[in-house]
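Run log, item B.
One chain of 90 residues. Sequence copied directly from the ordering sheet:
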Amino acid sequence: MLTFLVVVFILLNIHMLKYFDDIIGKDLGWDVIGQLLFYFAIFNTPVALPLAVLLSSLITFGNLGEHFELTAIKSLGISLLRSLLPILGL
């Protein structure tokens, strides 16, 4: 969830920079700006979800490799493809 929120925040900033000139100087209230951010965040969700899954799986398997847990999984006879299967299913 944390990586999803980070990716949404990054994509939201990128998307808001396109419309920065249109928003600034219009004397909009905080409620209108909040609604705009909310709608842009919903708009970016289909793009952010696969990126968040990819990023979190890279972080997870990086930590597993760093602490030699992937080596222990391989020494048990479990192939790397079989250990990656739940993430591919997700």
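Observations after the first pass:
- Helices lie at 2-18, 20-23, 30-66, 69-75, 80-89.
- The two ends are 14 Å apart (CA to CA).
Flagged for discussion on Thursday.
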